[in-house]
Amino acid sequence: MSDETIESILGLHHELERREREAIATPEEARRANTELRLRMRAQNNYLPDIERLAEKQLKAAGHTQGALTHRTVSIMAEKLGFELIYVNDLPHSTRSVTDLENGRIYLPPASIPGGHGLRSMALQAMAHRLLGHTPPTDYADFLQQRLEINYFAACCLMPETAAVAFLQQAKKDRNLAVEDFRDGFGVTHEAAGMRMTNLLTQHLGMSLHFLRVDSTGAITRVYENDDLPLPMDVTGAVEGQRVCRKFQARAAFTQQNRTVEHHQYTDTPSGTFWCSTQTGSSTDGEFSVTVGVPFDDARWWRGRETNDRAVSTCPDESCCRRPSTELTERWNGKAWPSARVHTHMFSPLPRGAFPGVDDNEVYNFLGRHASE
Q1: Share of the chain above pLDDT 70, in %
Q2: Cα–Cα distance between 233 and 213 in angstroms, integer?
Q3: 116 pLDDT exceeds 50?
Q4: Is the backbone of residue 83 left (phi > 0), alpha (psi -120 to 50) or beta?
Q5: What is the DSSP string of 197-218?
Q6: ∠ CA 69-72-78, rounded to 5°
Q7: How far is CA 72 from CA 59, 65, 76, in A?
Q8: How much is the average pLDDT of 151-164?
Q9: Cα–Cα dist 283/271, whole Å
């Protein structure tokens, strides 16, 4: 073989090695990419104008003008893209939907997940990949960017910018902003409504805010803030997976007797006083809380501002809620030996494959079964 041929073969070999390394991204790489994306979105008010316009254009073409987006309208949007929505019971366990590009089909589960992503949202996300011209992600950062964009598109369709901003502006004028009203007005989940507020409140109402989704252990699973709320973070700057202060309503809400209503609280922190509204819920993964909050001065626009509940958090000071009291330490130090629960996923690399977390073999077998139907 000539030198040029050998060089080409070696180049191909190195490229395959590089792709294999990237496909097995470490948790550290995932956290770094996620942190970079969160900071980048914060710098632009968590607002993507091009996707906002694309969503409204698609809604208009499907004949949607007002009110909650119906399943029928979502089906029409899919048809205009050349796709048929098909509901099946045997979706690969690692997927929320599967798109058959050859036969123009989008496969979805037969029912929405309690407390999770509804069928409308999953269908819209699948369509967004096509509308946004996505190609298989080149690395984990690209995968996260694509996931953010499809989630954003779905939110824009379910809560269109024009109608949503008008709703929020009127609520602010009435000093009656509330996540639950916004949620009910557009027929979405509490989490979706709270997250959508992060796209619109700063950009259109000039209001900074924070959003937290916290599990029953206090660990942050989803976060956005541009109001300087003090949040825990690791040495890389990652917030997801860290535990919020026990004094925050996001965590204290799990101890409330009445879980069916929003709970409001003022919290004094080293960065100032914040007001928040928290709603708890449950999913197949367990209990969680959703919190939307603002700095003290902006609480005057929100329902629940009259609450007398107040807490003081000095986190990240260890003495606030992480370190046991001197009395308890003296009583039990050296006299206890807890058996720790090890989370094995901490030692696992991210799943390999063109799409992180997806079993290619399972997906291709699924498509093979349904292609002939």
Answers
A1: 89
A2: 15
A3: no
A4: beta
A5: HHHHHHHHH----EEEEEETTS
A6: 95
A7: 12, 14, 6
A8: 97
A9: 33
Interval 11-70: pLDDT, tens: 887 776 665 555 445 667 778 888 999 999 999 999 999 999 999 999 999 999 888 898
* Closest residue by Cα to residue 285 from 232, 360, 359, 219: 219
Q: Return the structure tokens found at 272.
A: 């100032």
Q: How far is the C-alpha of 257 from the C-alpha of 277, rounded, in Å?
A: 16
User: In the beta sheet, which residues pair with residue 283?
Assistant: 286
122: which residues sit within 8 A by CB, 6+ positions away?
96, 97, 108, 109, 154
* Domain limits, the chain: 46-158, 205-332
Q: How many residues does the chain have?
A: 373
Amino acid, single-letter form, for residue 240: E
Count of H-run helices and E-run strands, the chain: 12, 9
Question: In one letter, which amino acid is 210?
Answer: H
Rounded Cα distance, 263 and 281, in Å = 13
- Model confidence pLDDT, tens digit, residues 341-356: 665 555 555 555 567 6
Helix ranges (H only) for 101-235 are 119-131, 140-158, 161-173, 179-186, 190-205
Q: Left, alpha or beta for 115 (phi > 0: left; psi -120 to 50: alpha)?
A: left
CATH of segment(s) 205-332: 3.30.450
Please state which CATH number belongs to domain 46-158. 1.10.10.2910
Mean pLDDT estimate for the chain: 87
The stretch 233-261 carries a mean pLDDT of 86
Question: For 56, which DSSP code?
Answer: H
| pTM for the full predicted model | 0.86
Whether 25 and 142 have beta carbons less than 8 Å apart is answered as no
